[in-house]
Every structure is written in C-alpha cells, then in structure tokens.
Amino acid sequence: MATLAGKTILIIGGSSGIGYGVAKASLLSRASKVIIASSSKAKVEAALVRLKGDITVAGSTVEGTASGEVVDVKDSKNVKELLEHVGEIDHLVLTSGDPVRTFFPDMDLDANKDIFDVRFWGGFTAAQAAKIRPGGSITLTIGQILVKPKKGWSLTSGVLGAVDSLTRGLAVDLAPIRVNVISPGLVKTEFLDGFPTEMRGELEKHANALLVQHIGQPDELAEAYLFCMKCQYITGQRIEVDGGGKFI
Question: In Å, how far are 142, 157, 245 from 145, measured between CA atoms?
Fold first, then answer.
C-alpha cells in the first residue's frame, strides 16, 4: 500500500478545516515533513499544538514533523517568498478560500473583485513558484457549487469554474508533475461560520437529505487529497466528494 513515507508536503490553508485534516492524515500516512501555512500566526501555532494532541489521542506513532509558516495568499510576492523559503517539496495542497460575503443580485462587484485572489491567483502563483520533486503533485480545492449552482452564487460558481479549468491547464504545463482538484460538498468546517445564520440552518437540514445522510468531516475529505498525492496515474482531474449531493 502506498504511503507518504519520506515526503514533504506543504498545505496552504492547513491551519483549519479540510487543510488541517489533510495535514493530520499526511502525518498518519508517514509523511516526513508537513508544513502548514496560513495568514494567521496564531492559527498556525494553535494548529500545530492541536496536531500533536490529535495524533496522541489517535494512539499513533508518527515519525514525521510538522511546522508552520505565515502567508498572505492574496499577495503573489508573499506566496513566491514562501515557496522559495520552503524549497523543494513533494506535494502542494491548497485549501484556502474566502467565505462568501454577499450574494447576487445585491453583490457590489467593485467590492468583490478580489474574490479571485485566493483560489485562482493564489493557486496559479503557488503552482508557478513551487519546486516539486519528480513524482510529486499539486492539489487545488473548489466546491460543489461548480456543478450544482445555487441561487445567488453565480460569482462564486464562476471562480470555482476558473480554478477547475486552471487545473487541467496546469496539468499540461507542469507535466509530468500531476495537478488535480478536489470538489467538496457540504463539509463541517470553520468555513461555515462565515455563512449567514439562516443559511447555516438550511445547510443542516440539507445534510439529512444527502445519500450518506451526514455532513462531511474534514478527515473524510482528507482521504481524497491523499489519493491524489499517492496515485501516480491521475492528473488533470476533478474529484467530487459530496456525499451524493449531486443526486438530490
């Protein structure tokens, strides 16, 4: 069975949510070095403490180490500096994303043009600057809104579509480095805290209608990212991990 033994993994957005789940799963899969990067130094430090505790609770002995870095994904220069600082890596994972702030038709476009900065331009810049070792990979993150848009989410859907297309372009440009994108459905993370209260209530109801009948957990999503890192025969693909949401 493939593991991440001896591998170095950089997770941008790794201090919480899905990214944190990927960091923990990578260590449990024998990664040699896991680097989590986030815009908040306090969150990075808290995540490192949490990682140590969660792994202890799991009763597993890990050989790898975890460290943290601070990065502003909206600042391309800062992203490039981070990639230069960490040097060669085996796998790059990006799970960062801004919460939805306003919805169509009330959205002020001028105030929301930066919505592309994190997922699209941040991902592009990181992929361009990363020093990936042979056999390595890059995994981006979008969301179910791409394939099943909801009323008011048109701009967000457009951003996710751009990243989905970017994935296939990067897979060609960076070959044989592999590039894939994960498209999660409803996942219980801190990201939901940015949604309006009434919408969070609707999301909880929606969970009961999913084929798996529960909201996804970060640890469940992490398995898809590990697959993309381990499998040497997948690139340019979108993997939908949505609990059967597309069927309801």
Answer: 8, 6, 10
- Tracing tokens 């799963």 back to the chain, one arrives at 25
- The topology (CATH level 3) of 8-247 is Rossmann fold (3.40.50)
Local confidence band at 200 (pLDDT 50, 70, 90 cut-offs) = low
Residue 158 buriedness (CB in 10 A; 0-12 / 13-18 / 19+): middle
Tell which residue, 151, 156, 147, has the closest CA to residue 248.
147
Cβ neighbour number for residue 159 with a 10 Å cutoff: 22
CA atoms within 13 A on the CB side of 164: 18
- pLDDT of 192 > 70? The answer is no
Distance between CA atoms of 10 and 247, rounded to whole angstroms? 34
Q: DSSP state, 187?
A: B
Give SS3 for 160: helix
What pLDDT, in 10s, does the model give residues 69-115? 999 999 999 999 999 999 999 999 999 987 665 666 776 777 677 88
Element (H, E) at 203: helix 197-209
CB-CB contact of 100 with 196 (8 Å): no
Domain boundaries, the chain: 8-247
Beta strands in 142-208 (DSSP E): 178-184
| Tokens at 63, concatenated | 């050989």
